[in-house]
Amino acid sequence: MAASFSAVWRAGVLTLLLAAVVHGNTSDYLDPLQPTTSDETVSVGGTVTLTCRVEESDNSSLQWSNTAQQTLYFGEKRALRDNRIQLHRSTATELSITISEVQLSDEGEYTCSIFTMPVRTARASVTVLGVPTKPQISGFEGAVPEGEEVTLTCTSSGSKPPAQLHWYRGEQRLTARPDVVESTPGEPTYSVRSEVTLTVSRGDDNALVTCAVVHPSLAPGDKRSQRALHVLYSPDVKIHPQSDLPKEGERFLLKCEGSGNPEPNTFSWQKKDGELGPQVTVDGAFLHFEMLNKSHNGVYLCQAGNGIGSLGQGEYTLLVQDPTAMASGSGVDHAVIGGVVAVIVFILLCLLIVLEDTSSDTKEHT
Fold this sequence. Notes:
CD80_C2-set, 6-stranded mixed beta sheet, 25 strands, transmembrane, Immunoglobulin-like, alpha+beta, about 375 residues, transmembrane helix, 3 domains
């Protein structure tokens, strides 16, 4: 009885070991006749290549079928009359076809089959990307006063999956409201809308605001639109003198320049802590001095306006130079220079005399 149980036990163990070995060999076994494919992604209007391969051939033919299980190619033979579908390569171990001018309706699962016993199949999923349209920017089109808010709207349609819209002012990314996504009736595509609100400053005048579409079917920057900002702001004022050294007795001119949008059209002049005085006339942006004298010294103010905000103001300090003092100072300078030159010449003459005496003494000794 014990011997019989031992024999049964050994047989059971051997059976389990054999089953494990067979299972292990089976799990590692790769069917050389099993076709393999890969999933593909393509944009509308593009071309996709579907490739089916087997490791070995038993002379059975490979076949591609579309999403409706219609045969496209059976080996080298075309089965469906669609000129967009062409044979790319046909060998004993490979069947590749191309589909050009891809449409959204081409999306789905394609089947590769090999007619062995039994028939073996593999599937390839084709994803078609809907290409978004160029974005359109709407909103303000005129000029806006400095400090006010501007709201711009950007829209793009035809994307699949939904596109993203990014805003930029110059190179700076802007924070916008979340995109609003709506499906297109009767189509598997989407339209996207985005809004951004800006508080404009004078530095934004003529700055470009950009709306760019971000989508896997596009390269960065492929589709974008721009809108220039136009900002109204009060003038910045500067006063420019006719000369950096205004001299007593000469004519002199100060010019008031204002940079604003629009350009300033009103100017007013005054002298700080005093009157403009005689022989001084105002001509719009210019202040004329017929003949400068010391009484004209002081700080001059110019105010410019363009109807936007407050007046812009600039100032200039006028110091009239005495031409006589300038000439005498110049004479002193020349005298000093002449004295220095005379000393240098005297030293050189002394050196020459010493050198000649030394040379004469040397000759007498020889």
